[in-house]
Amino acid sequence: MNKSYHIGELARELNLNKETIRYYEKIGLLSDPKRESNGYRNYTQGDMQILLCIRTAKEHGFTLSEIKMIITKLYEDSKDCDIKHLKKMIVNKIETIDIKLEELNRTKRLLEEINKNILPE
């Protein structure tokens, strides 16, 4: 049997704010959940997976509009999602990450050099 979650449970489980989850519904990042007779939102494991995807993508610098495009393609396979644009967006993110990694590596090498040759033991 698939587990379902009320918004408070989902928010605690994912360390998200309930208002954030409602906002994601409002802007279409998350489908409107089924509602119980008392009006409570009833979320599924699939909703949890989508929210994890959103959170991870945000942590890696994707905007909400970029995330929406990715989720649309991955979860809904919508015809209005431009796959070429999606691919270009992802390639651009990879390039941005590569640049940041190179900057961090240069900084690391500099600090190692300072530590080794300039600072006394």
Produce the secondary structure layout:
Elements: H1 7-14, H2 18-26, E1 34-35, E2 41-42, H3 45-59, H4 64-76, H5 83-117
Antiparallel strand pairs: 1-2
Outline the structure in words.
The chain is mainly alpha-helical. The protein folds into 2 domains: 80 residues, Multidrug-efflux Transporter Regulator, Chain: A, Domain 2 (Orthogonal Bundle), CATH 1.10.1660; 40 residues. The protein has 5 helices and 2 strands, in the order ααββααα. Strands 1-2 form a two-stranded antiparallel sheet. A hairpin with a 5-residue loop joins β1 and β2. α3 packs antiparallel against α4.
What's a quick, concise take on this entry?
The chain is mainly α. It has two domains: 1-80, Multidrug-efflux Transporter Regulator, Chain: A, Domain 2 (Orthogonal Bundle), CATH 1.10.1660.10; 82-121.
Q: Biggest sheet, strands in spatial order?
A: 1-2
Number of strands: 2
Count the DSSP helices: 5
Q: Using only CA atoms, what is the Rg?
A: 20 Å
Strand fraction equals: under 5%
Shape call: elongated
